[in-house]
Design a protein that fits this description.
The complex is a heterodimer of chains A (156) and B (169).
Chain A: H1 2-57, E1 72-74, H2 75-80, H3 83-90, E2 94-100, E3 117-120, E4 128-139, E5 144-155
Parallel strand pairs in A: 1-4
Antiparallel strand pairs in A: 2-3, 2-5, 4-5
Chain B: H1 2-53, H2 65-74, E1 79-81, E2 89-91, H3 92-108, E3 114-122, E4 132-136, E5 147-153, E6 160-168
Antiparallel strand pairs in B: 1-2, 3-4, 3-6, 5-6
Helix pairs in contact in B: 1-3, 2-3
The chains are: A alpha+beta (156), B alpha+beta (169).
Chain lengths: 156, 169
């Protein structure tokens, strides 16, 4: 009788553990699925920001002729670029900034060429993803080549 | 006999749980790292190319950083005049030592989590007596997580091999 009860207890315990393992596996897979989906979503967002950065820095409309690798942005082209042009180039809800190191004065058609910051489509909205990378800025009038930081991103 | 079998089953179950947890952690960690690596590889490459193309403010043969580095390895005695004040003259090596690390540090000031190490040497090691110019922190090369950019400065007599390594501080 006791031996039989012990057997039954053993099976109950084993069944309990097997069920526990099955539940753990199900919960683990669900959690992992949710985790990878959100991680995939953030990867896709980062890939988009990265793509926008490459598209801007390699755009033939903004680069000095003959430069195919890395950014050699021409200051005169940046100065005449408007938000609508950028949206045509990269899509809606995007923004960009080119800042020559140590420069603070914003570039407008009036202030050109004594300036070193170009901003396009910037809003107060703080919900955005952006990447930055070093680029060269070619000064058309002086034929000088300076180094700056290009930031391109999009609003969510 | 049955008791031993029961214990063996329990141990198997525990082992399966541990294996699942390890596989899960590995998959999670590997899925997080890919994109970051790609971005920093691009960043390292752009930083190296941009620094090499930047004008130094000195005249020929020190017009750009890459010209200056080439000059400092091949024409040791050549002097470069400062464009804004021609009375100021410096050797190519002095200009390279001043401008190249200065520019990289200025750019990396916008990314304070990164440290760098740059080496310049002749492509043919027997050329120029095997001299190597280096800037930045040499410890960076030995760190586990690094992003490397390589560029060649192509010139008539000697090609130079330039390597920039970035790593988290």
């Amino acid at each position: 009788m006791l031996k039989g009860q012990a057997h039954i207890m053993e099976y109950v315990l084993l069944s309990f553990f097997i069920l526990l393992v099955i539940f753990l596996i199900v919960f683990f897979l669900m959690g992992w699925q949710i985790g990878t989906t959100s991680s995939r979503q953030s990867i896709l967002r980062e890939q988009r920001a990265s793509f926008l950065l490459r598209a801007f820095s390699n755009s033939p409309h903004l680069n000095k002729e003959g430069f195919t690798e890395g950014g050699m942005l021409e200051d005169s082209k940046l100065t005449v670029l408007e938000c609508s042009d950028l949206e045509e180039l990269l899509g809606k809800n995007v923004f960009a900034e080119v800042r020559i190191l140590d420069s603070i004065s914003e570039c407008t058609q009036e202030g050109y060429p004594r300036c070193g910051v170009w901003t396009f489509c910037k809003r107060e909205d703080k919900n955005f993803i952006a990447y930055d990378t070093p680029v060269n800025v070619y000064r058309t009038l002086t034929r000088d080549v300076e180094i700056g930081i290009l930031t391109v991103g999009f609003y969510e | 006999m049955n008791k031993i079998r029961g214990q063996a089953s329990l141990i198997m179950i525990v082992l399966i749980i541990i294996i699942f947890i390890i596989i899960g952690l590995f998959l999670l960690v590997s899925s997080f790292t890919t994109e970051e690596t790609e971005y920093y590889n691009i960043y390292a490459h752009d930083l190296l190319v941009s620094v090499m193309r930047t004008k130094t403010g000195y005249q020929n043969p020190c017009e750009t950083v890459s010209d200056t580095i080439y000059c400092s390895m091949t024409r040791v005695d050549r002097q470069c005049r400062y464009s804004e004040d021609e009375s100021i003259r410096k050797s190519c090596r002095a200009v390279a030592d001043e401008v190249a690390p200065g520019l990289i540090s200025k750019v990396l000031a916008t990314k304070p989590n990164l440290d760098y190490y740059m080496t310049i040497q002749a492509e043919d090691p027997e050329h120029l007596g095997g001299e190597t110019i280096s800037y930045g922190n040499p410890d960076v090369a030995g760190r586990g997580k690094t992003w490397t950019a390589n560029e060649r400065v192509l010139r008539y007599q000697t090609n130079l091999q330039i390597q920039l390594i970035l790593a988290p501080v």
